[in-house]
């Protein structure tokens, strides 16, 4: 997703929607201005929650052939799911470095060989120093702003220095934030330098999704121009 200029992209987390109506809810988000769909995949191991896997993604892809799908793989063994998620139609495969810290480069290479883009995610307790040597292998860096595995958590403001460091050192990197991001916390994310915004409850539960997405975008774009000059 990297280009010569940073672009704001809003990716609602579909996990917060009515999963019995996943296609309709996903299409509604796209119709209301979402740039991509953020699909949270949890294995009940790396995180204590369990969500959906590649069969559900594949069904959704058949209904929505052209949208950009990101799989956020909160799983213990990210390598295991590269091929199934690629076959299901994922565009960006974002995995956590923590369970495979000695194997990150190899996993990145396998993802790229499959044709998907690579995202690297870090939990709140993981420092930039653990990520630093892998950044050049990624298309996107995801900084978690809550502990992964549960929705509805409070936004962790003290994660913003990670975003600031990444933006300062990698001016054109796609930097994503995920967790507790909404109208009250978007300014902190934007000013720190995040340009890919994952938002769940704030968008899904809104009576006017388009207005919330537009407001998030406006806040981010007002900060992005500083990086693009």
Automatic annotation (TrEMBL):
It comes from the Eukaryota. Pathway: Carbohydrate degradation; pentose phosphate pathway; D-xylulose 5-phosphate from D-ribulose 5-phosphate (non-oxidative stage): step 1/1. A divalent metal cation binds at residues 38, 40, 72, 178. Keywords: Carbohydrate metabolism, Cobalt, Isomerase, Manganese, Metal-binding, Zinc. It is an enzyme of class 5 (isomerase). Belongs to the ribulose-phosphate 3-epimerase family. NCBIfam families: PRK05581.1-4. HAMAP family: RPE (MF_02227). This is Ribulose-phosphate 3-epimerase.
């Amino acid at each position: 997703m990297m280009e010569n200029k940073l672009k704001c992209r809003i990716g609602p987390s579909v996990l917060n929607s009515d999963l019995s109506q996943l296609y309709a809810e996903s299409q509604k988000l796209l119709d209301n201005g979402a740039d991509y769909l953020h699909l949270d995949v949890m294995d009940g191991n790396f995180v204590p929650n369990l969500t959906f896997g590649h069969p559900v993604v594949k069904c959704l892809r058949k209904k929505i052939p052209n949208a950009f799908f990101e799989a956020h793989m909160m799983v213990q063994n990210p390598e295991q799911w590269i091929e199934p998620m690629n076959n299901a139609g994922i565009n960006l495969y974002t995995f956590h470095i923590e369970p495979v810290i000695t194997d990150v480069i190899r996993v990145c290479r396998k993802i790229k060989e499959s044709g998907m883009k690579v995202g690297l995610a870090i939990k709140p307790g993981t420092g930039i120093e653990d990520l630093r040597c892998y950044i050049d292998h990624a298309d996107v860096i995801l900084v978690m702003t809550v502990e992964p595995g549960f929705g509805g958590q409070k936004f962790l403001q003290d994660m913003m220095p990670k975003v600031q460091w990444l933006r300062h050192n990698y001016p054109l990197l796609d930097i994503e934030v995920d967790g507790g991001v909404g109208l009250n916390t978007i300014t902190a994310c934007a000013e720190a330098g995040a340009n890919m915004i994952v938002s769940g409850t704030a968008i899904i539960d809104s009576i006017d999704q388009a207005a919330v997405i537009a407001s998030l975008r406006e806040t981010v774009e007002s900060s992005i121009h500083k990086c693009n000059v």
